[in-house]
Each structure stands twice: as structure tokens, then as C-alpha cells.
Amino acid sequence: MSTDKSKNNKTNIIEISKLNKWYGDFHALKNIDLNVKEGEIIVVCGPSGSGKSTLIRCVNFLEKFQEGTILVSGTELTDDAQKIRKIRSEVAMVFQHFNLFPHLTIVDNLTLAPIWVHNETKLEAREKALKLLDRVGIRDQAEKYPNQLSGGQQQRVAIARSLCTSPKIMLFDEPTSALDPEMISEVLDVMVELAKEGITMICVTHEMGFARKVANRIIFMDDGQIVEENDPENFFNHAESDRLQLFLDQILTH
Amino acid sequence: MSVFDQQSTRKPPISQIGAVLWLKTNLFSSWINSLLTLASLYLLYIMIPPLLDWMIFNASFSFGTVNLFGFDIKFSEAMATNQNCGREGACWPYIYEKLYMYTYGFYPRTETWRPNIVFGLTALLFVIVPLVKHYKHKNRVTLSLIILYPLVSYVLIAGGFGLLMPVSTDQWGGLLLTLIIASVGIIVSFPIGVLLALGRQSNLKVIKLFSTLFIEFIRAVPLITILFMASFVLPLFLESGNYFDKLLRALIGIALFQAAYFAEVVRGGLQAIPRGQYEAADAIGLSYFQKNILIILPQALKISIPNIVGSSISLFKDTTLVLIIGLFDMLAMVNLTSNDPYWLGRETEGFVFVTIVMWAILYTMSRYSRKLELRFNTENTN
Ligand SMILES: Nc1ncnc2c1ncn2[C@@H]1O[C@H](COP(=O)(O)OP(=O)(O)OP(=O)(O)O)[C@@H](O)[C@H]1O
Ligand SMILES: [Mg+2]
Asked: Are B285 and A99 an interchain contact pair (Cβ–Cβ within 8 Å)?
């Protein structure tokens, strides 16, 4: 297909090379190399403790790392607060536990960054926020507080909040794993829509149906390393390493 | 498919409600509890009647004139004297006579309206803050009131502007002084305390060390020591001849003291905020100050309200210590007036009176804070 070709021509929006990260003495990420092209959808999976969260949290500098480089849109991540803030406004993150601000209404949760970080007027920000809430299907909840909403609704608010600053890259850290089963699909539906719109996404998730449907590449991590990466077809049907095969056997039988 | 009848609602059985249940669960739930209840009742029985006799039944009320906030209420033409009162009961006319000093200290009698306005403003502040709760700019209104209140009060009480004649701080006293020391102490120390709490959690090592040392030093020293240091040691560091108001020195000492306590209270609140809140704030690109002011502090302060009020109440009580450095707050006034040769042996009345006033103020404060807390909580509990 032509889309594959155009993707090859696109530039790397994220370039990670020789990334090493320690928590104290614990070597959490080992020599990670990963390039992500603009508009690519990457799914990261792997057993618990393999470093998936750590990896994507390095991309928006929520975690500092000791060795290696990460370039986001050509800007290298360093300890420079100004630069980090700029990168964070391009790289949005959705958390496992939503992390909405409980003291603010839904719409105020959404307008916070546009108003304070991007200097938009309250009116503009609010209008855009309502549009986004409409898009994730909960415009009618705009004036409520987060804990008056169900888990699935809260996560959709969190996605809308991260879209408010028109990011180029979205990071998802197990966005559905804190949800009751009947709420998972409403969140995945929103993510599928986003994927179609060409935003660059890195999703840590164990929703293999989602991975199969939208991922351009799936990455398998174990023990702080990238063990295998492949397109969905080959990833699921022709696992090269035993570790991946074992992992797939475990999660697909459930 | 089965269909259920709608059940009609009814009251719980009689033994499960009202006074009977209350007595059973609170006072007589076990034999040891019953024993304690009976012992307490006995204690009250031997203490309350003599107290009431002294305060009310054997007491003298109606001699002389009482001046309440500038208005004279005349009880009788007869002068109130120690001899008019019996020895077996309280002599409240003594309080009437000294009420002015308990309330205003040595404040000029012609200028009483100025502190009266300040008392009125204080009461008004307490009434207004909850009323603006649903107003859109409630935070801005509340904050400006809290900043304006001490300024307006100062201008009124100190004077020296326009038509207001200046009244020097050594004429301030009584309840007026108590109120000034407590409110200035609380209002000034609060922002310092918040900064210290944030400082103690800071990643910047120097700031963290300074905040920690400051807090731990102050908390390890009694307020009396700090008051002594502020009033006797502080002047040693200043250029000689630089006169520095005694009240101001005490206020600085009290504000620093209270800041350390507020810092610990606020730190407790900060620690209760989940890490996810910090991460979400970081992830959307907020700066350090935006993160704290918009996300962290509103949540941390809300959970700290009971402790903030508790700490303020203890400060209010501790202000009575200023009598040690020669400031005449309400308690010091009682002490001073008890030396009056016409009223020998009447200090008990003074102390009982101050106790009642203090209790009324502090109890109101604590009820008020509970109400405030409930109001804050309604917005996001479900
Ligand atoms: N703040 C931390 N301090 C110390 N060790 C940490 C910290 N965060 C993570 N780790 C360790 O680093 C390793 C990788 O953690 P990470 O959270 O990235 O795993 P994960 O792949 O996301 O796992 P999960 O599927 O359970 O979320 C784990 O062994 C974890 O114990
Ligand atoms: Mg994780």
C-alpha cells in the first residue's frame, strides 16, 4: 500500500539511542534503540517489570536517564526546564490511573494547560475543550467533577485533556488496565479513532486486539531490553524468540 | 421473570432510635463504661452546684454602669465598690468597671470607635468568607479580604493619617491586642509556612536544607524563648539607636514560630497528594509554580484545614505569653487590674471572665472550621 511507502519517507519524530536507565543499582533499561516515524503507531508489550512504563516515561522526561540520547522532533532531552516544558507540550501522556485533577471540573481539567501553558484565552480554551469532550462522547459531563464519573469516562476525559494542547505524540501507559471489562472498549474506540487521524502514538498495552488492528509495529520488552519488534502479522504468527512465544501463549490463552 | 412488590418504607424499631439507643451505645455499652458514666455524673454533681452558686446565685450583678463597645448600660446610681458585693459570690460589677481595659487596654477613650470598627470587620470577615463560596471569583475575593483586613485594621488602630490621631502601640491592649497578635501571627505566618513546606520538599538541596533546619530549630524551642529572643536579642543585632517597636518584635517572633508549625501541617497535606497528580501536572507542561499553585496546594490545603485551624487555635492561646515581654493582652490586663487597691481579692472574677471569653472565641473558631470543611468537601464527594 502507498501508506507504507510514505511512512518510510517520513522523518523520525522520536529517536532513542543507547538509552540506559538505572533506579539506584537496578538496571531498568538496557541499551534501548528505537526510532519512531511521524504518524507511526507503536504498541509496547512485555511482562510486568520489563521496563515498558520506564521507557515511555523517559520520552517526556518524567524519568531522568543516565546514558544515551533521546531526540523528540529533533530536540535532545536534557535537564533544561524550558526545553522540557516545550517538549511536554508536544508529547502528551495518558496514565493507567487517569490522574485527573479531582478539585477541578472536567472542563477545567481540560482548559488548564491551554490557558496556563499556551496562553490561550479562557473562551477559546473552553470552546476547544467542549469540542474535544464531544469527540470522546462526554460533553454532557463537562461541569461535573472527576469522581462523579465512571472509570471509562474518566479515562476518556484524560485522553481529551492530553489532546487539548494539540500534541504531535501521544504516550499511553496501560490506559485500559485499571478499567472494568465493560468499559475497556469505549476507551479503545477513542484510541482507534486517534490512530486513524495520523497522530504518532506509543501505547503500552496488553490489548492485543487493539494492537493487531492499529499498530504499525509491536515491540516486545523483557528485562529492560527490546527483545523483538515486528509488524503485527509477523509478531503474532512468527515469534522469533522463545520468550515472546511464551508471553503470547500466556496472554492469548486468557 | 419474577416481579417484586414495591416495599413500603417504615421507621426502624423503637429500641433502635432516639434517646434510648443513644444512651445504650454511648454511655452504658459495657459495665466499665457504665461505671465511668456514673463516676463522671458524681463528679459533675459535686462541682457544678458550688460553681453556679458562686457565679450566679450568690453573685452580685447590678451596681454601677457597664460600658459595652462604647454604649453605657446603667444598672444603678450606686457606685460599684468591693463592699457592695458579698464575699460568698462573684462580684461582676468589678468586671463592668474593668471591661474597658480588658477590651482595649490603654487605648484613648475618645477613640474607642476605631477598635470597635475593627471588631466589627473581624466578625464580618467570618460571615463573608462562606457567603462568597458560590461566587465565581470567590478565591480572589477571599484573598483580597484576607490581605485588606490587617491593612485596614492597622490604619484604623495606629492612626496618624488624616483625621485619625496616632495611637502608639504601647497603648494597645486587652482583647484588641490579643486579636491583633493572633490574626497578624496567623495571616503573616501562613504564606511563609507554605513556602517552607514546599522548600522542605524541594529538589534544590540548599533550599531543602535551609527549610528543614529552620523548621526543626523553631519547633525544638518554646515560644517563650523565641519571644525573649525577639524582644531582647534581636535589638542587639540592630544598629544602636534604631528603635524598633516592641510589639513589632513580638509579632516577628510569633510569625516565625507559627510559620514552622504551619509548614509541618501543610507538609502533611502535601504528602497525602498522590504522585500521579505531580506527574500529570508535569506531563501537561506546567511549571513548578503553576503545578504547586494550581494543582498541588489547593488539594493539600483542603485536607489540611482541620490541622491549620487546630494550629491557629493553639497560637491564639499561646499569644497570652506576650505578657512575659511586657505587652498587655487580655490576660495581662486581668493580672494588672487585680492590683487595684479598691478591688482587692477579685482576681478570680477576672480570670473566670477571660476564660469564658477565650472559650467562646476558640469554640466558635473550631465550629466554624468544621462548617468550612463540610462546605469544601461537598464539591467533589459523591
Ligand atoms: N521509582 C522506582 N524506583 C525503583 N525501581 C523502580 C521504580 N520504578 C520502576 N522500578 C523498577 O523498574 C522496573 C521496570 O518498571 P516499569 O514500571 O517500567 O515496568 P513495567 O514494564 O511498566 O511493568 P508493569 O507492567 O507492571 O507496569 C521494575 O522492576 C520496577 O520494580
Ligand atoms: Mg507499567
From this structure: no
- Residues of chain B with Cβ-Cβ distance to A86 below 8 Å are 285
Q: Are B283 and A93 in contact (CB under 8 A)?
A: yes
Which atom number of ligand 1 is nearest to the Cα of residue A57? Answer: 18
CATH, domain range A41-49+78-252: 3.40.50.300
Q: Where are the domains of chain B?
A: 36-80, 100-172, 183-376
ipTM score above 0.95: no
Q: pTM to 2 decimals?
A: 0.85
Best probe residue, ligand 1, of A26, A177, A247 (max atoms within 8 Å of C-beta): A26
Nearest CA to ligand 1 atom 2: A23
Kindly determine whether residue B286 and residue A95, on different chains, have CB atoms separated by under 8 Å: no
B314-351 per-position pLDDT tens digit: 999 999 999 888 899 999 999 888 888 888 888 888 99
Burial (CB count within 10 angstroms: exposed 0-12, middle 13-18, buried 19+), residue A147 = exposed
List, as own/partner pairs, every contact residues B29-37 make where C-beta atoms lie below 8 angstroms and the sequence separation is at least 24, other chains included. none
Mutation target to probe the A interface, by most A beta carbons within 10 A, among B284, B286, B299 is: B284
- Interchain contact B375–A (C-beta under 8 A): no
Record: contact A62-B290, CB cut-off 8 A: no
Fold of B183-376: MetI-like fold (1.10.3720)
- B296: which 3 cell numbers? 498541588
Domains of chain A, by residue range, sit at: 41-49+78-252
pLDDT at res. B271:
95
pLDDT tens, position by position, B277-297? 999 999 999 999 999 999 999
Task: Extract the runs of DSSP E, i.e. beta strands, from chain B.
Answer: 65-68, 71-74
Residue type, A51: G
Burial class (CB in 10 A: 0-12, 13-18, 19+), B27: middle
Is the per-residue pLDDT at A2 higher than 50? Answer: no
Give the residue from chain A lying closest to B283, CA to CA. A88
